[in-house]
């Protein structure tokens, strides 16, 4: 089977590539040009994929673990072999700069290998093995799973769901975002070389497809990454058939900067962790609390750094930020600017607006000096390159303000005093908390959100368990 990454994007159902009568396409966010056509799946396609998945599950779930690992490792090698081509496709569909696209595509191979290493530790637990009985706690696969993917990391998030699903003996249907279906469809097409028909399938579609999948009685598990608003709909729909759900949702991560830091260095680091991927990261820094005694020099350093950040098409080497991924998100982020005064904007920009509406969805980095703490930019997930700076004096007060959010994905504390930093860090209500860094996640550690940032975790041994049912097996001798 030849594998051409840049043309013919199709569904994969039961090992076969297939198209649909109706098609749609994404937009290259740097140019506004149409990307190639992709399928718009029907209810019938969903039923076919679920039936094929159920059939494939019978044998895949019985395969020895070593055989599953072997297939996944070979798949990881193939992804790595094609990483440069995947990276180009990722730039074209998502917009991110080529060096980060390359990192993401290569990183996907690494994710599979690390997950395979970790999965070897997911063993049965022996509760008792006496003369009269043996009690074993087993991890059994759930069945047909669905991975629902957002548009910010379409390559790595596909693999983050696919690898643990298959390692634990499940089969999976990947549903990419309609904005970024390309890498996911090709990752699944490539997977057909390594897995039997029906084990890894992909369906591309419009807004009807997600609900068809979450409602389908033949599906046992939904692993969803996306916004908190959609996550609630997914959970509601999945509840009707009591599907297992893992929800990785939105964030409003606070960074708390203490008074003893190297101001220039930390201002640049914290701001860069808010601007990476043009701010379109669930774990991006989304509000910055700076100690009052260093607030003014920090603000100055943050603005100076933001002005040096290279913004442009992802195809050009050296850009740190590409465009926003889609017109909907572009308009949403522009909405935050509409709420701000000209004085607040002029700090970062000599122009009246940080965008020009010509061609791509580009927005230049913007720092907002002490907005009202109840304003939209201080409370809502912006998912764009606009960062509010707020000040603090009292430790308990800043902890309470950082925790005063319905979201709890990540948070960080920046300080040279590790005792103080660790004291603050332990009181933050978030699934991922860092000291002197932000969003450095490790595939060996569980990743998930508190409050409305999610339910369950992915990553590490804890994440693998979420792809399994527990079975207590009592053997009377
Ligand atoms: P989104 O919720 O709009 O869409 C996510 C996916 O859900 C897409 O594939 C979409 O087609 C699908 N979908 C939409 N409606 C659905 C429904 N009713 N039923 C089932 N599926 C449905 O999110 P987005 O705009 O693509 O992504 C941005 C959001 O994702 C941000 O809030 C971000 O913080 C979050 N995110 C979270 C993580 C994490 O790991 N916690 C990672 C990346 C992004």
What does this structure look like?
This protein is α/β, with parallel strands linked by helices and 477 residues long. 38% of the residues lie in helices and 21% in strands. It has 16 helices and 21 strands. The strands form 6 sheets. It has a 6-stranded mixed β-sheet, with helices on both faces. Strands 14-15-13-12-17-18 form a 6-stranded parallel β-sheet. It has a 3-stranded antiparallel β-sheet with strand order 5-6-21, with no helix packed on it. β10, α8 and β11 form a beta-alpha-beta unit. α2 packs antiparallel against α4 and α7 (209-215) runs parallel beside α8. The chain is globular and about 70 Å long. It starts with 10 loop residues before the first strand and ends with a strand. It binds nicotinamide-adenine-dinucleotide. Residues 148-152, 175, 177-178, 210-211, 214, 225-227, 230, 233-234, 248-251, 282, 381, 383, 409, 449, 454 line the site of nicotinamide-adenine-dinucleotide.
Bound molecules: nicotinamide-adenine-dinucleotide
Per DSSP E runs of 2 or more residues, the count of β-strands stands at 21
For the biggest sheet, the summary is: 6 strands, mixed
**Widest β-sheet, arrangement of strands:** 9-8-7-10-11-20
Strand content: 15-25%
Taking pLDDT < 50 over at least 5 consecutive residues as the criterion, the unreliable ranges are none
